[in-house]
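Handoff note, outgoing to incoming analyst
You'll be picking up this chain. Sequence as last confirmed:
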Amino acid sequence: MPIETLTYAALGARLKISPLAARSLAKRRRLPRSLSDSGKALVSIDLADLRHTPRRPGSRQAGDGALQAEKILALQVEIARLEATAAGHRADFERERERADRLTTELLQATAEATAAKEAAARLEGSLRTGDRSGGSTDGHGQATSRLGHLLADLVEADRRACK
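Most recent structure output, in case you need it:
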């Protein structure tokens, strides 16, 4: 049979399908299309090569409805499973975040204590050097000895706080 140029409505009438179904068929088969002078789409087709058998209108919807309902149910089950997994991951995340916050607080406290201990050690070292230069205390109750005792007490106290 020769190639014919038909509108979607004419193609649908020949194949006993709707114009919308004819348009979909032309797109699927990638049939050559052009525009008529009136602005309607024309499809070039050889009807002998087409071999199209239309479906019954009710058969497609009945079978598809049950299949779609089954797919929807399966997807809902999958969504519920994924939501449960996400909730578990969220709980793990929150637990780890609290743990990181506690560790950060402990680290800041340890840093502050270490800084205080370094400052106390530097003061003690400075007083020892000052005491060495001045020749130390001449008597057992001198000012340098008293200052050294206070610095040692501060150092011991900072060390005890760091160990807690």
